[in-house]
Design a protein that fits this description.
alpha/beta, seven-stranded mixed β-sheet, 12 helices, binds zinc ion
């Protein structure tokens, strides 16, 4: 539908959206798992060109190519100043707390603290693919997982975050076992370098085969899906002193389900939550991407026009093809 052009915030910018990813978090908001004010525009994995700049902005100008983390920190609190804007208590999130990027234009406040400039050789589509799932996976594997060469990493759930994690862990020289219910998703994980795969089935504990294939359990294990059963299986699979990183969002009963704390104590497991990645950490990731060591565009399996974005969301009610779908609002594409 047509809506008025967004107004430029004093401390922000308006972007022409060039590319924006369709993420399961958008689906959660659309389904009502997260509260959003209606009417609402989803979309939080975005890249585009600055078209308007607010009077209080000093770092950005019209015409620059940028992306932004899905969490916009306030830029002034202790956490933001320490480089941890991803957990700012006063955060905004495009597509959740404010209108998002399934649109030709999006307004982004707090531009000086949160915008990230794009290297010239990074396409808008690849940058949008980095936005939430790749950046989240990067932080989960690199910062929280502290993965080192030769270690085993288990990735439970091979959607956008999971496949990103497989690629990043392989780039760090780790060995990877990928777990999913979907054979095509496991095939995609194999293509991105997974050394082993475990096909999950409802009611079957995948911790045992993961421990077997990794010779006693991985050093690091991710729940990249977000379900109580998956988180528990991830923890049960770990070797002593392993790290479980919770990346997938948990809602409803899943959110309050207890982790297997007996195993957490007996094996001294570290349980870490991961919530996106702050703008301050983007340069190191972008350097790896620009160098060619990591190619986020390999995760993009479908590019569609804005008219198809709604359908792409509703398709997430069922199983979706592996990889990331990118919406290009200004492109004339309808496939
Ligand atoms: Zn997302
Ligand atoms: Zn803050």
């Amino acid at each position: 539908m047509d809506v008025p052009d967004p107004a430029c915030p004093d401390d922000g910018v308006v972007l022409d959206v060039a590319a924006t990813g369709v993420c399961r978090s958008d689906w959660h908001a659309w389904r009502g798992h997260e509260v959003v004010a209606l009417p609402h525009i989803p979309g939080h994995e975005l890249a585009g060109t600055v078209r308007e700049v607010g009077p209080a902005v000093s770092r950005w100008r019209v015409g620059q190519r940028v992306t932004v983390p899905f969490v916009l920190g306030c830029g002034t609190c202790d956490l933001c100043r320490a480089g941890d804007a991803q957990v700012c208590p006063d955060q905004e999130q495009p597509g959740f707390t404010m209108p998002g990027s399934f649109a030709e234009q999006v307004a982004l406040p707090r531009a000086d603290a949160n915008l990230v400039g794009l290297p010239d050789n990074l396409s808008f589509v690849a940058a949008a693919a980095l936005g939430c799932r790749f950046a989240t996976a990067y932080r989960a594997v690199v910062t929280h997982g502290a993965v080192r060469t030769g270690q085993w990493v288990a990735v439970h759930g091979c959607g956008g975050v999971g496949l990103s994690a497989v690629m990043i862990a392989k780039a760090l020289g780790a060995r990877v076992v990928a777990v999913d219910v979907s054979a095509p998703a496991l095939g995609a994980a194999r293509e991105l370098g997974a050394d082993a795969v475990v096909e999950a089935r409802v009611g079957v504990d995948v911790a045992a085969p993961v421990r077997e294939v990794t010779g006693g359990g991985p050093h690091v294990s991710l729940d990249a899906l977000g379900a109580a059963e998956v988180a528990a299986a991830s923890i049960r699979g770990l070797r002593p002193r392993g790290r479980h990183v919770q990346v997938g969002l948990l809602h409803g009963d899943d959110a309050s389900a207890a982790a297997p704390m007996d195993i957490v104590v007996a094996r001294e497991i570290a349980v870490l939550g991961s919530h996106g990645m702050p703008a301050a950490d983007y340069p190191a990731m972008l350097e790896l991407v620009a160098s060619g060591a990591l190619d986020a565009s390999r995760l993009v399996t479908r590019r569609i026009g804005l008219a198809r974005a709604g359908a792409a969301l509703t398709e997430m009610d069922g199983p979706t093809p592996p990889g990331i779908t990118i919406v290009e609002p200004s492109a004339i594409i309808d496939r």
